[in-house]
């Protein structure tokens, strides 16, 4: 077992940086975030599948492949390494526009200094790795501990496409707020939606039987039709069958995420609305000393990034290993880094309090390993020590 301490390194500069100074020193932190370079720029992806064009065009498939790439084995080693080098170069260029939230964590927290941080976390692909079986997308104990720690310092909400019951059974932290079905579990949908959904769910379950690998997941106010395990040549057929089913339900709309088709009520409700609703419900609306951080990986999280960007409040952080158009300001490569950010956020707040009180701080949480956060020319060094040794 280990314990850790957060100490101020006396040899390091301690200047308190104002947001204006940060904006000058770190142009990538300015709002709104700079646009991606031209070759990455595209119209905001229209995620809603248009029923009128059922069966025509593959643009949605291309978009899905970009959002959720599958690792393809190349027959030739040289072409595989050329493709990998091109992807790396594209990612390097993208990450300059959306810098790592981990490497820039001190700047993020400096901007948040004196404000009430509110943490919003997507589930799949953010807190849990993407896996083939949606019923087995478990989060690790380390991640749970990281989220628990951050929630002990800041109001924390899980915002998921899954139903509240399911996502909370995965997260297993009753102290959190949950916004399931893309936020619709916070506030119930209109009368009648439930009845339609039961019929649609049954019809969808009937059709997926004809497409091997596909499956329906009932997310209470939304339905997911998964096709991660369906061969690509059947994707269009599956989408057409799904479109046929929901054609009779004008109050439902069809959208898509990471190898998933999502059927939801046509009401204007998304993760951005859920974020606004939660901020308001928690009593944080209308205060400019509130600093929401929203971490997510999917195109559905873009609605929340957009809200933060439009409000010029807090930061959106995208979890992605590949370059993609986003409204987020920062990035993380994978869910594991999200745990590091959660830990860093609460450590940084503890550091601010500790330094204000001129006292050394011993973090209550148990972590393994050793690390620093921020670069060594920055203010704080996070020291991990063996249990019982001097701080
Ligand atoms: O908003 P989220 O919490 O990210 O939920 C969005 C969808 O996530 C789940 O599907 C995704 O993760 C699965 C497990 O890793 C993966 O198999 C699937 O391909 C992904 O799309 C969930 O099962 C869906 O119901 C959610 O709508």
Would you give an account of this structure?
Removes the phosphate from trehalose 6-phosphate to produce free trehalose. Keywords: Hydrolase. The chain is of the alpha/beta class and 391 residues long. It has 2 domains: 2-26 and 102-186 and 269-385, Rossmann fold, CATH 3.40.50.1000; 51-67 and 190-265, Trehalose-6-phosphate phosphatase related protein, domain 2 (Alpha-Beta Plaits). Helix content is 35%, strand content 17%. It has 11 helices and 13 strands. The strands form 3 sheets. It has a 6-stranded parallel beta sheet, sandwiched between helices. β2, α5 (141-151) and β3 form a beta-alpha-beta unit. The model is unreliable at 1-46, 187-193 and 354-391 (pLDDT under 50). Bound molecules: the ligand O=P(O)(O)OC[C@H]1O[C@H](O[C@H]2O[C@H](CO)[C@@H](O)[C@H](O)[C@H]2O)[C@H](O)[C@@H](O)[C@@H]1O. The ligand O=P(O)(O)OC[C@H]1O[C@H](O[C@H]2O[C@H](CO)[C@@H](O)[C@H](O)[C@H]2O)[C@H](O)[C@@H](O)[C@@H]1O binds at residues 122-125, 130-132, 134, 137, 160-162, 217, 219, 224, 226, 228, 257-260, 262, 298, 300.
Order of helices and strands: EHHHHEHEHEHEEHEEHEHEEHEE
- Please identify which CATH superfamily of the largest domain we are dealing with: HAD superfamily/HAD-like
Low-confidence spans: 1-46, 187-193, 354-391
Cofactors, ions and other ligands in the entry: the ligand O=P(O)(O)OC[C@H]1O[C@H](O[C@H]2O[C@H](CO)[C@@H](O)[C@H](O)[C@H]2O)[C@H](O)[C@@H](O)[C@@H]1O
If you compute it from the alpha carbons, what radius of gyration comes out, rounded to the nearest whole angstrom? 22 Å
CATH architecture level-2 label of the largest domain:
3-Layer(aba) Sandwich
Sheet bearing the most strands, described?
Answer: 6 strands, parallel
Helix content: 25-40%
Family: Belongs to the trehalose phosphatase family.
GO molecular function: trehalose-phosphatase activity
Cofactor: a divalent metal cation
InterPro entries: HAD-like_sf (IPR036412), HAD-SF_hydro_IIB (IPR006379), HAD_sf (IPR023214), OTSB-like (IPR044651), Trehalose_PPase (IPR003337)
């Amino acid at each position: 077992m280990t314990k850790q301490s957060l100490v101020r390194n006396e040899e390091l500069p301690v200047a308190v940086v104002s947001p204006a100074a940060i904006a000058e020193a770190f142009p990538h932190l300015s709002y709104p975030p700079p646009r991606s370079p031209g070759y990455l720029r595209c119209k905001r992806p229209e995620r809603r599948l248009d029923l009128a064009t059922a069966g025509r065009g593959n643009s949605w498939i291309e978009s899905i492949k970009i959002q959720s790439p599958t690792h393809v084995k190349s027959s030739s080693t040289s072409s595989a390494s050329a493709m990998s080098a091109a992807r790396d170069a594209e990612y390097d260029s993208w990450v300059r526009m959306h810098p790592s939230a981990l490497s820039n964590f001190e700047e993020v927290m400096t901007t948040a200094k004196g404000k009430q941080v509110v943490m919003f976390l997507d589930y799949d692909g953010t807190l849990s790795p993407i896996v083939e079986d949606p019923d087995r997308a478990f989060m690790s104990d380390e991640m749970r501990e990281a989220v628990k720690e951050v929630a002990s310092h800041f109001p924390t909400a899980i915002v998921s496409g899954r139903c509240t019951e399911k996502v909370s059974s995965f997260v297993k932290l009753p102290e959190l707020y949950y916004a399931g079905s893309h936020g619709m579990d916070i506030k119930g949908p209109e009368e009648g939606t439930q009845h339609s959904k039961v019929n649609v769910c049954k019809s969808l379950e009937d059709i997926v039987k004809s497409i091997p690998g596909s499956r329906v997941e009932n997310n209470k106010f939304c339905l997911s039709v998964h096709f991660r395990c369906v061969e690509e040549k059947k994707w269009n057929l599956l989408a057409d069958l799904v479109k046929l089913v929901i054609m009779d339900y004008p109050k439902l709309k069809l959208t898509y995420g990471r190898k998933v088709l999502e059927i939801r009520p046509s009401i204007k409700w998304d993760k951005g609305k859920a974020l606004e609703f939660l901020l308001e419900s928690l009593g944080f609306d209308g205060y400019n000393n509130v600093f929401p951080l929203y971490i997510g990986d999917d195109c559905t999280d873009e609605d929340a990034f957009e809200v933060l960007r439009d409000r010029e409040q807090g930061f959106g952080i995208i979890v992605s290993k590949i370059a993609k158009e986003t409204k987020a300001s920062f990035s993380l490569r994978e869910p594991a880094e999200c745990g590091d950010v959660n830990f860093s956020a609460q450590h940084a707040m503890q550091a601010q309090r500790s330094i204000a009180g001129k006292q050394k701080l011993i973090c209550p949480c148990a972590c393994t390993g050793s690390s620093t956060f921020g670069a060594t020319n920055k203010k704080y060094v996070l020291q991990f020590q063996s249990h019982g040794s001097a701080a």
